[in-house]
Amino acid sequence: MPKKIKNCSKDYLTSIALPVYEDSYTVISHASVIDMSMAELKTAGFTVKEEEYRATADGKIAQGAYKLHYNSDPELYMMFAWTNSYNKQVRFRCGIGAHINSTGARMVCGEMGNWSRKHTGTADEETAKTIKDQIANAQMYYNQLVADKENMKKIIMNKRRQAQMLGILFAEYQILTTEQASMVRQQMDKSLFIFDDPDSLWAFYNYVTLALQHSHPKTWMEDQRILHYFISTINNFAKVPAPIVTVEENVILTLENNYGQPENQLNMLNEIEKIEIVEVEEEKVIEDSIDEIIQYTDPAGNTFEAPVVLPFAKHDDETEEVIEAVIEVNLNEPEEAVIIEDDFDMDFSSVSEDEGDDSSFIF
Question: What is the DSSP string of 317-351?
Answer without folding.
Answer: HHHHHHHHHHHHHHHH-GGGS--PPP----B-PPP
